[in-house]
């Protein structure tokens, strides 16, 4: 039995990557004749306490940690308790002390910028989460690295915008980007939720998404496919398989640290060449 703390959905988000991961984890576990024990907890401390009780009582043999923060206390706590686990994600420090599987979020936004540069865009904005959130910070880092590598830092540096992960918040922040004296011709976002807000803002501004403004999201949710939104797809099914393999000791990758590559899915929101704007 594999224990997993299920987190509440963000009320403003269009969908959650946790849904896909939970399904992938259950499928991979079933294939290995293991099953999931889901539990809830109010906060990080409560989750650690629950893990200890469930493991001591024999209800779960091992655990999967999800959505790690930069200074997450859970890995060290479980190591100290002697509880077997694998993390989906990793901390900024101490990640060499425990097994994890993660997706290269830095590479994801780099792929998005490279694609837009190849389409002729030179003013590429980033719409991400406020600083201090591990995944969001890594996605922002990828955008920064990419615009610097393409020598676009001077043109794009003022186009770094942050928003809470909701459509309405993204609309307001996108309006501010479009009000800039030299507005972006393309926007890379940290989530598909933010991308939908950017698309709605563009339409209200009188722009046609894909022609006047390119938009690329992140996570490739069902919403992205429905709205013809280009997006970065995480290999969640593979993550689930590798997490279970690491838990069961059948992982052939070696040290228990796996950084998987995401994929850019191109749709009409960014497929056309850049259109010059005055």
Automatic annotation (TrEMBL):
Transmembrane domains' residue ranges: none
UniProt entry keywords in alphabetical sequence: DNA-binding, Transcription, Transcription regulation
Single GO molecular function: transcription cis-regulatory region binding
InterPro entries: LacI/GalR-like_sensor, Peripla_BP_I
Domain named Transcriptional regulator LacI/GalR-like sensor: residues: 113-270
Keyword Iron appears in the UniProt entry: no
One Pfam family recorded for the sequence: Peripla_BP_3
PANTHER family in alphabetical order: HTH-TYPE TRANSCRIPTIONAL REGULATOR GALS, LACI-RELATED TRANSCRIPTIONAL REPRESSOR
Protein name: Transcriptional regulator
Organism: Streptomyces shenzhenensis
